[in-house]
Each structure stands twice: as structure tokens, then as C-alpha cells.
Amino acid sequence: MPRSPRAHLDPLSRWLSLDFSRPERSYYPDLRDFLSELLGYPRDKVVTEDRSGEGYPDLVLLNAQGDPWVVGDFKLEDRHIADPASNAALWREKRKYVTGTTRYVLFVTPRYLQLRDATGKEVALLHLPRETTDLLRQKLAPISWEKARHEEDWKALVEGRLPYAYLVLDPEGTRKLQEDLKVSFAELTEAASRALLALEERYQEYRGKREEAERNLAGALEETRRRILARIEGEYPEALKALFERHLPRFADQYGREIEGEEEPGNPRIREAFAADSAAALIARVLFLRFLEDLGLTKRRLTDGGPERWREFVQFLTDKATALVKVASLDLSQAYAEPFEEETFSWILETNGEMDLALQRLILRVNAYDFSGLSEEVLGDIYQNFLPPDKRKRLGEFYTPKEVVDLILRETALAHGESLYPEVLDPACGSGSFLVRYLHHRMEDAKARGVHLDSEALSRSIWGFDLNPFAAYVSMFQLLWGFLRLKKGKPEVHVYNLNSLLDDSDIAFLVKRSPGEEARDEKEWDYVVGNPPYIRAERAKYGQAIRDLYREVWGQNGDTGLLFLWRAMRGSGATAKPWVKKGGKLGMVVSGGYANSEAAAPVWSLLWPGKEWSLRKLVWMEFVEENGRQKNIWDAARIPLVLILERTPPKEEDEVEIWVPSSWPKEAPEPHEVSRVRYRDFFDPKVNPQGEARVNGYGEYLLPLLRGEDAPLLKKLYPGGEIAVFLTEAMETQYTRQKRPQPF
């Protein structure tokens, strides 16, 4: 291959010798060669965007870890750097490419080169014909390959030299944060899995030593036995034993049969879930620390020289990010106990260095973002992004779209006019979709009306339970995040990691219940909302205990969603105490299969005339279409059915509102989508079928497609009283007592 006539030139001279008369993209190979040789980068670490179109920077310099730590743009016209107005416009246009891992932005034209830091501050402005290759290398030393190392970034952060909180979390900034956190989540999960394996080897070593000692000391004096065993115990930290003897078994117990395989901590799926949830909980903790910093509620600990003050305090722990986060958490727990008292996932900060690199990289990424104005809903979005669909399916948990959440809240807690602080419960709160959305609406409404909310009173009114420890953890974080944005008082967060379907009131004299368990067993709320998980009843954890508590609705076709409905409306077999106060409302998303399920008939019997509950609204989402095709509201395989119930005895003249939307989302129904049926007609056995038992003379199903004008027509099928006839017979002319014809 013939040698280029410019091959003997140094990189700067070769660059300046180009005529720059061709299209811009044709010079990308030259740009790669120029920067690679000038800055010492391997050629595969200098990336140019050869595809046409927007959305990607022209130029990216990757660091040793593969992060885009320098992004940039190449322009054929020198005015984009030489002219201040054009240069400012270029920065405004290209700053969108700055992410949490970006440290510098590089602009290049044929005769100019400009280097800015990630905030836009100019670091160097160079007129290339006046430079030499050596001088240019010196002036661009901050972005040389030698500096393109994670260690250099961490050192800059520790020394307080990195700018911070310069990326605003608008929609585009939030998208960048999501992408950065996804990468950190993957890195932390991998590190947590390795750490868990290493710790397990250490734990098995401890168990082996102890068991061997027990065998060898079988005939020894008790004093000798205690002394030897105490020495073995002292060789291994208590945190190691707590991990494998308390935290991991508790985690496995809470997930139970929701994960395939044996209900043991050694189940690979449980280990996988434990490592992933531990990593995600660590991300939540770091985000909360950054939030407190940017909101001005604490001094800087992770940014703006906070790590430098840490370095002045310690001598050998400067690179131990786990120690830094642990100490910061311990200190702040004195003011904000809830986020830092959770023990299930705290093991991740007790590892021997396995987590430090991944945690350092997380801290570096979130250093760039300004969390002060961030909505409290972001952590829920992060949770939904982290939890893969297959895992959600195994847990019977599905993301509830905000529009469905808003529909239920509008019909329940947000319609409350008597008090500023009605009590609201989501007994299967997940990552907080309903509770956080409710808080968000309350804050936005108060802001719009100029009303000041009492954060302490508001926090006391919002309650959540969830079996998943990580979901409860994230829900708690989001709520506290929102309460602290009010900047008043010291809020309490009532989110508890527990099994909502259990009831320990009959054994309360034997065990000490947590505040959450006491509330679950004894408290009533103004509103109960949610989207409970769909798990077959026989697969639910503590199956025999659950069966005893819910005998009325326990059956072959029942699932946990049905049990949640019964508990909210009727209570468990232990207390028969509903969660909803008299006059309160229940709004839930349930499986559409309940409408005609015999397993659900006992629940619907609570809605009969003369009973304690009224059916106010039913929303059936089977026929939602988009572009002429059926649209799935979410990733569940079931038809969503939204129920709005009120704990008030129904009157015969009341109406049941039935809404069958043809499109979604929408705030209000179109007239043709809504029907209203008189209450006495809705459960009339001539309109609504009865089960085989035919008790009390009322129908035992919900009819989501019933319209008000259908009831008289259906009753015509009973011309002789209680016995139905075929439609053709019913349509025959009937005669009055005066023998006058009475047409159908």
C-alpha cells in the first residue's frame, strides 16, 4: 500500500495540511488519526459518528473503562469557535451530549480547537497554526490518555476539583440519569453477586470450623468448650453471620413461593434477586444522600470537596467508597432514621472492597446531576426500569400506568373535601405508584391554590405495606423525598415491609408486633387504593395460615388479589375488621376475570342491597383500541377491572356507573362509553345470574357490559314470575287481566 505523502508529518502538521474542501463527515478518519496520535489514545477509543442524523455527538473519546468522558463536535467553518456568538450557539446546541460520565467537551474546526469542562467553562482556546504538537499536547494534557482513567476522576472528586450538580433534571436530564443509573445498576449487581459468593465461602469456612470443633469437643469440659467456640466466633465478624443467618433467610422467606424452586436462601433465583435488590437499594441510598446535599439539608459529603474532608479525617480509607457512604449514612440517620435503619440490604456496605469500584463509579455519575428540583416520582420510574418484566411476572407484580392511578385517586382520596389529611392506605404499595402519585397531586394542588401543607400531618396520613423489602424501601424513599421538599417539620414515613394478608391479632399476647403489623391488624383508613398482585392463592406464602384467615374466598380459582379485596371490605377471619372506615372508599385494579368468577361471588355478595358496601363505579378496559387494534393497558395478561366501592349501605334508587372506554388514556369518558344502572336492577336475579346456591335472591356476578336500558328487556324473559323462558316465548303477545293484548 503506497505511503501517504503526509505520513512523515507530525499529527498537527498533517491536520493543518488538509484542504477541508470535502463534506464534513469525510474528514472523520483524519480527525480520529489526529486526536489519537496527539493525545495518545488507542484508535478504538476515539469514536466518530459516521451515521447521518441527530442524537449522537460527532466525536467521543472513551476512557479506559469505555465511558464517553469527552464528547465533541467537528465543524468545517472556523467561525463556530472563533466567533463568540457562533461558539455560544454551538455550546447550547451540543451540551445535550453531556452525561454523568462526561468530563470535557471538545470542539474542533480546521484551524481552531476549544476545550470546555462539563459545565461549559472554557479550559483552552487554541489557534492551531500558532501551536506546535508538543505545546498542544501540554495544553490538552487534561484529556490525554494518561488522564483517561477512573482513578484520575475519583482523585479529582476527592480533592474537590470536579464540578457538581450542573445537569438539570428536566425530561432530557432525567433520561440521561436513567441511562447512567442502568449502567451503575448492572455494575453494582455484578459486584454484589461476586461479593456474595466470596462472603459465602467465608461463612462456610466459619460453619466448617465450628462444626469440627463441636465434634472434637464432645467430651471436653464445658469451660474449655465455651473458650474454644468463643475464639472461633471472634475470628468471623457478626455482620457475616447476620447476612447468612438472618438477612438472606428473611429475604428468602418474604419472596417464598413467588420464586421458582425451593424456598431456601441457596436458591440461585433468590441469590440473584437478593444481589440485584441490594444493588438497587444502595443506588437509592446514594441518591438520597445527593438529594439532601442539593436541597441544602446537610453539608456536602459526596460532592464539592466532601470526600476531601473525609480524606483529611482518615488515612487509609480514601478509596473506600463503601466506608464513605456508610459513615455518611450513620451520621444522617440521626436526623432521617427511616432510610438508613433498613438492615436487609446493609450487608453490601460491609464487603471487603468488592463493591468500592462500582460504588465510586456510581458516585461519580450522580455527582453531575442537580437533584434539588427532582420530582419524588423518579425513584419509582427507576425501580420499574430496573425490574425486568420476567421478574415482575414471577412476583405477580405489574406496573400501574399513571392514568389508571389518577382515575382511582380522583374517585377516592383526591375527592375528599372534609379534611386536608384523610388517611390513605395502599396494602400492596410496590414502589409507591399510588402513594407517591397521591402525594405529588396534593403538593401540586396546594402550590396552585397557595395552601401550605403540614408535612408532618400529611406524612402521618399516608400508609403503605409491601411484602417485597426492596419495593417497600424505594416507596419509603420516594415519600420521604417528597415530604422533605416541603421543607417543614420532621415527617414520619409509614411504609412497612410486611405480609398484608396475615393477621396476628389473635396471637398478639405472644409476640410483639411492629407498628406496621399493629396497624394492619387493627387500624381503619378513609381510603384504601392499589393494584394488588395476582398470585394463585395456593401458591401464596404461609398458605395454610392464609387459608384459615380467608376461608370464605379461598378456592381453586382464587388468587391474592381477591384476598386483598376481601380483607379491605370484610377483614380476616381473625378479626373481621375491614381496612376501610365506615363512609370510606375502596379503589382497586383487579383482574377482569373476577367479574364472572364463582370464587369472587362471596365478595360481590357484600355489595347486595341491604349490605354494608355500595358499588359506585366499574371501569372495564377490555375494548381499548389504538389505530383500530386492541391496546394492552399494561403488560399483565389479564383484563384490567377498576372498582370504586364505598362502605355505605346502598339505596335502591342509587346508580352503578359503568364505563367501558374505547381509547386510553383519557381523564373523562365520552357519553357513549358510560351507562348507569339502577342499583336494584344491577343485582336483580332476573338481570344478574345467580350461582347454583341461589341464596338471598340476588345476582352473584358483576356485569361490566350491562346498560341501563337492558334491565327491563332482561326482566321480560320472566313473564311468569321466577322462571325464565326462551326469548321467542317471552316475545309472544301477553294479555292483561282484561284480556287486552300487551305487546312485548
Detailed description of the structure:
It is a single chain. The protein folds into three domains: 11-148, tt1808, chain A, CATH 3.90.1570; 171-374, no CATH class; 381-608 and 633-645, 3-Layer(aba) Sandwich (Rossmann fold), CATH 3.40.50.150. Helix content is 40%, strand content 13%. It contains 27 helices and 21 strands. Strand 2 (59-62) and strand 3 form a beta hairpin. Helix 7 (171-216) runs antiparallel to helix 8 (222-235). It is globular.
Q: What's the topology here?
A:
Elements: H1 11-16, H2 28-39, E1 46-48, E2 59-62, E3 68-74, H3 79-82, H4 84-94, E4 104-108, E5 112-117, E6 122-127, H5 133-139, H6 150-158, E7 167-168, H7 171-216, H8 222-235, H9 238-255, H10 268-294, H11 306-313, H12 321-332, H13 338-341, H14 356-366, E8 369-370, H15 378-386, H16 389-394, H17 402-411, E9 424-426, H18 433-449, H19 455-461, E10 462-466, H20 469-485, E11 494-497, H21 515-522, E12 525-530, H22 543-549, H23 560-569, E13 580-591, H24 601-605, E14 614-620, E15 625-626, E16 629-630, E17 640-646, E18 655-659, E19 674-678, H25 679-682, H26 710-715, H27 727-730, E20 734-735, E21 741-742
Parallel strand pairs: 3-4, 7-8, 9-10, 9-12, 10-11, 12-13, 14-18
Antiparallel strand pairs: 1-2, 2-3, 4-5, 5-6, 13-17, 14-17, 15-16, 18-19, 20-21
Helix pairs in contact: 7-8, 7-10, 7-14, 7-15, 10-20, 15-20, 17-18, 18-20, 19-20
Task: Provide a quick synopsis of the model.
The chain is α/β, with parallel strands linked by helices and 744 residues long. It has three domains: 11-148, tt1808, chain A, CATH 3.90.1570; 171-374, no CATH class; 381-608 and 633-645, Rossmann fold, CATH 3.40.50.
